[in-house]
Amino acid sequence: MRKHNCLKAVLIAFATMFIAGCSKNNDKTLILWTDNVEFASYVELFNASQDEVNIATVYKSELIDSLPARKGEKSPDLIAGSYLGYGMDKHLFSSLRSLFSKSLLSEEDFYADLLNAGKNGKNQYLIPVSFNLGTLVFDINNKEIIDQNTTTVTFQQLKAYSEKFNIQTKENIYTKMAFAPQWNPEFLYLVLVSKGISFDLHGDTIKYNVPLLESCCDFLIDWTNTINTSCNDERDFAFKYLYTPFNKQVLQQKSLFAYTSSKELLSLSEEQLDKVDFLWFSENDKSPVLEDMVMMGIYKKSKNKHNAQKFITWFMNKESQEEMIKRRISMKLDTNTFGIANGFSSLISVNEHVLPIYYKCLLAKIPSSSFPQAPKSYPANWKIVKKEIICPFLRDSIAEKQDSQIISRTYSDWINQNKEE
């Protein structure tokens, strides 16, 4: 975290100097806003690769909410980061349709569902850059328990594995418990997404399918009571044994699985990865992409759209992305990030032919082109709403049946409280 904060400070300082130095050459100077520090390295590589266009990188923690630019601040030409889909509804981006009509980019190179997430009607406004998947990690010494003919795991399979692994004493105290949904708030939310539940935020109201939400809560309660006896048993077990990082949890041989994201898993050292194996979470042959999927677009008020397209065309190229990965590894820019912009590339060929060279654990485990399922577009504050309202509701529901309208009331109170502050 400290390293990322330093990188953010460097980005801001560099952008200030660069923009001032390029004021006489505005037609060739692009401003890129991003909330992903990896783009500083990518921009540097792009600038060095040609002499027609220069880019200055500016870090913004809240991209969409930072528009329009403050008085005296230069507007961006390019925007790259998470939670950009919400900006399409605000008509903040220029159409990128010509990149495909002129064959500068090919739709076949991308994961179809992710590319469609950047469309509004027939127009392409955002290009997917990278994504992450939910991952179930286990100790390699438990491989015999796991079906070796698959790289994925479903809810039903998690339950079946749990029944084989769980062990209780004569006093009905668990000494081994394979997995519980409530152990990780992100997994609880993944259950919702997999069941087709989404939320619509409008002002101080939040709308959702109440019967479907209640059905999902019943599913979680049944899982806990059927597989792990009770909510208290799951919580007692977690208190006793699950106080270490996810990879160390499974190495204790007390639990079978730990849930994490692909970027957290692949940020581990090679030595740590050698001790574990993993499965992608899947339901109905799809895996929900985590909401912080990185996308890129051209700001509608940019006066440098043609040059901005040059950067996107360069970026969405297998050879360019391999150079980005090589550069980060050779220069040891940040050993705690993975792939492209800390995720799988949106380019299928990069994942299939480049990433396994640098991440041996991905051999024969790259997701198929139809596997990733794009997330719903949410505003940037959704990550706070999910953490403070949605996930606590789900966890409380496992302990005791909750009124599903609590989410609506809590959200309204939360919005009004933030207005007052």
Work out the radius of gyration: 23 Å
End-to-end span in angstroms?
A: 27 Å
Whole-number average pLDDT?
90
Supply the helix-strand structural class. Answer: alpha/beta
How would the global form be characterised? Answer: globular
Number of strands: 18
The amount of helix comes to 40-55%
Uncertain parts: 12-25
Summarize the structure.
Helices cover 42% and strands 16% of the residues. It has 18 helices and 18 strands.
Description:
α7 (185-194) crosses α17, α8 crosses α17 (382-399) and α17 packs antiparallel against α18 (406-420). This protein has helices at 2-21, 39-49, 85-89, 97-101, 112-116, 155-165, 185-194, 210-227, 231-241, 246-251, 262-265, 270-273, 305-315, 318-331, 348-353, 355-358, 382-399, 406-420; strands at 29-34, 54-59, 78-82, 119-120, 123-124, 127-131, 134-139, 152-153, 167-168, 174-176, 200-202, 205-207, 258-261, 276-281, 287-288, 294-298, 344-345, 372-373. By secondary structure, the chain is α/β, with parallel strands linked by helices. β11 (200-202) and β12 form a beta hairpin. The chain is globular, with a radius of gyration of 23 Å. The strands form six sheets. Strands 2-1-3-16-6-17 form a six-stranded mixed β-sheet. The chain has a four-stranded mixed β-sheet with strand order 8-14-7-13. The chain is built from 18 helices and 18 strands.
